[in-house]
Amino acid sequence: MTDQQDRRTGASAWTAEPAPTEPPAPPRPGSLDPRELGFTPQRPVPWLAPLLLISTGLRTLLALLFGAYLDKRELQNSLPSNVTRQVGPGGDLWLDFVADLGDGFNATYSVAYLLSRPELEIDGQRLPRGQMLLMGGDQVYPTASGEAYENRCKGPYQAALPQPPADGPPPALYAVPGNHDWYDGLTAFLRLFAASRDSNIGGWRTPQSRSYFVVELPADWWLYGLDGQAGVYLDDPQLRYFEEAAKRLTPESRVIIAVPEPSWVKAVDHPEAYDTIDYFIRTVIAPTGAKVRLLLSGDMHHYARYSGPDRELVTCGGGGAYLYPTHKLRESIEVPPKDTLVRRASNSESYELNARYPDPDRSRRYGWGIFGRLPLRNPGFATLLGVVHTLLLLAMVGVAAPRTEAAAQRLFSIPLAMMLVVTLLGAVFFAKPPSANGKRHARHWILGLCHGFAQVGLAAGGTWIWLQLDFHVWQWPLPVVAAAVVYGPLAGLVASQLTATYLLVAGSFGVNLNELFAGQGIEDAKCFLRLHIDADGTLTGYPVAVDQICRRWRADPDGAPDDAWLSPEQPLAFRLAEPPFTIR
């Protein structure tokens, strides 16, 4: 139950929320027809599709180059700066955390369906639905827009909980923006989560007014949701808001910080990644004497928990996006990293990896699936490889074939040099895209060039086989037509398997590990975190794992108003990713 207190201190206001206006209940759909659902269920994003790679790369580059010009956080200073309070009727609170959710419908809705159930029973324990839902970033893929949010986030969650529960108040929903939410400068995110006229997404109400927030929880627990704009910095209005809210903290207070990315993991290779969080803790939280007991994040699409002397670091990004591996996680990390350049950084502490999902062996086995999934999940990528190899074939034949006419030889001899350069550069950039974070190390150059030379070698072998046939002596332009129709598709399939081999090898060196799994688009192995804060102050975490998502749904047109519109045709199995952990 939400309890608002009417207190005012400077810029922050503790205000009573107006009673949410109950929207008219939408008619329950009788099928999965988008015209009945009100949104279009989406297929998983084909992350290696050529046009998507180009558009996402350009958007990432623009965000890096012009992020300051697109930054709308300074403008949010004019929006209300409320600090809300969430406490259940018994003085406790159930809180759900989900992140990286706006991808394919089946995976996203499988998680949303479980989150909306009145309770989950696991190992004899009954876990009630969260009275509060926290979305931890990347609520939409691949880029933010009103239509994308409608189809990949709002629509599925409204279908899972169309109306507030009949037996209690509507659960609250808060959201932290991730890098994909930032690709349009946060415009669509603010419209959906912070400036909605209806102030609700289905049966969840959305009380936040900015892209960041503070929520008082039971037993002097506090939740701070940060908007770090892809880890760059915290703007002054946001810092002033947090500093004002922090005046309510005491040395007995315990703080949960939700951030867009697990910078404690990324700081292993990029020490500066943790600087923003460390600065926030040192300057805002530490002066109050309060203790940060839990850091929460998504961004990496798996579950992992690191434990330190007085803090838990949890990554839980299994809300719907493709699975990210766990077998390369460090068993121990230093936070903050000792080699940070920040002169007044906090003292480094050692954190041990206590749990991960999926387990390392299963994660490695998933990696081997790249051979079958790469061409099936990304036909456009295989087509691109086929086109490149067809051009390489024509260029090589134009130089090597003794029967080639002089004009044709002159035409194709120059493109051969160009195609070789393009192929090698493309392989190097694929190993470390210019828009990716961090520096290009020797392993990126070596593996990228090896991949490029392997593709050139494959093209040379294909050219030799082609010259043993009669296609190249046919009358012009039949050789080109034959190359495009016969050689291109076969070369694309073989080249995709060569790329899959490269990804598997490179992944073992920590290169292109994301592409190894993004290229597969693994929808299974999803997770979310259910937290319970008892009235005595004990926090218990229940990481819920879904080994296999549902792919077949049936409509429930005669259900109650708050029943899910769609139900799985077969029961959706779930379990705990690890035994419950507690923080006191």
Plain-language structure description:
The chain is α/β, with parallel strands linked by helices and 584 residues long. The chain has 15 helices and 24 strands. The strands form six sheets. Strands 3-11-12-13-14-16-15-18-17 form a nine-stranded mixed β-sheet, with helices on one face. Strands 4, 7, 8, 19, 20, 23 and 24 form a seven-stranded mixed β-sheet that branches. Strands 1-2 form a two-stranded antiparallel ribbon. Strand 15 and strand 16 form a beta hairpin. The two termini are 23 Å apart. Mean pLDDT is 85; it is low at 1-20.
What can be said about this structure in brief?
This protein has 584 residues and is α/β, with parallel strands linked by helices.
Strand residue content: 15-25%
Fraction of residues in helices? 25-40%
What number is the mean pLDDT? Answer: 85
Reported for the largest beta sheet, the result is:
9 strands, mixed
Q: Give the N-terminus to C-terminus distance in angstroms.
A: 23 Å
Number of helices: 15
Structural class: alpha/beta
What global shape is seen? globular
Tell how many strands the DSSP assignment holds: 24
> Over the alpha carbons, how many angstroms does the gyration radius reach?
26 Å
Strand sequence of the main sheet, in spatial order? Answer: 3-11-12-13-14-16-15-18-17
| Low-pLDDT residue spans | 1-20
Structural descriptors:
18% strand, 24 strands, 584 residues, 36% helix, disordered N terminus, alpha/beta
